[in-house]
Amino acid sequence: MNKITLGQFSALMLINDVFALLCLTGGISLWTALGFSVGIVVQFILALPLIRIYGRGKNIEQCGKIAQTAALIGVVLWGGLLFSMLWSTGDIISVPFEKLGKWSRLIMAAIIGAVCVYLSSSGIKAVARSGAIAAAVGALCLTAVAVSSIIDSDMKNLTIQPQDGFFNEMIKGIAIGGGMNALTVLLGYTKGKTVRTATTYIICRLIVTALIIAVGVLVSGGIMDITDFPIVTAAQLTQPFSSQRIDSLFLIVFTVFAVYSIAVQGAAADYLLDCVYPKFKKYRCTAMLALMALVGLMFQGKTHYGVTFAVLGTAVPVIAAICWRIRKAVKS
Length: 332
Hints:
By secondary structure, the protein is an all-alpha fold. The protein has one domain: Amino acid/polyamine transporter I (Up-down Bundle). The protein has helices at residues 6-22, 30-54, 65-89, 103-121, 124-152, 166-175, 180-186, 194-220, 230-237, 246-276, 284-299, 307-331. The chain is globular.
């Protein structure tokens, strides 16, 4: 696998994190931002042993088949969750062919899936280069929404009481951090110092997470009880430009982020499958994306914020680090 830069790595990881936040359901408050932030730190601490191992020039290939298989399962399951989030959020996001009714979401998913196959089959390096551009466009959109929300929103919304306890919010934050599975693959192939790369990404993730949740609270706070997707609702209600509806721009960013989030999982799964079962030469990426879509159908309509999914978001880096140390102990 070709090396990717710190910026490209951070862009791909943050696109995944932001897309999961855009699909966030349920009530949110500043308590949510705190819980999510602590959850991110917990994930970083648990992944730190693997990050330090990768800092010695290692990667997932040196961790062995068990680690590669665990990473493959984690990436496929998270890709399935992303598909499920996409379909669920599609209920309230209008698409150009919405008059087709229930077929509109299927058509949108098919188009996104086709683009994902094209991107993923090009390899991580190609995805990383274009993903950096997509992340920059998304950052501009989020900045416009944030500025508008601060100017026009009611600051009293910041006093909204949390609907769940701190521990539940932390678990929820960890559960939507399944992108750490892709980190297990990508981080070993980044240029520069691995620890610095991972730390930079985590700091950016903390800032972006707090900003997005704060915007959601500021804009959607008054109607939190009647909206299922507070972040999407905030984007739809915000109007920073007099001649352009921000929700139109948001639809573009949402779709692009969906494509890249799933494409990264597809490319990582393609690479891992080659490591685990190299005899599978053709259509690996297509097969992996199809499997993710099937998993997404299985998860459809289910809550993604429980302890099970929190474990999914943290276990793979831990397993990979343990496998590497066992292999090292056996060789010595």
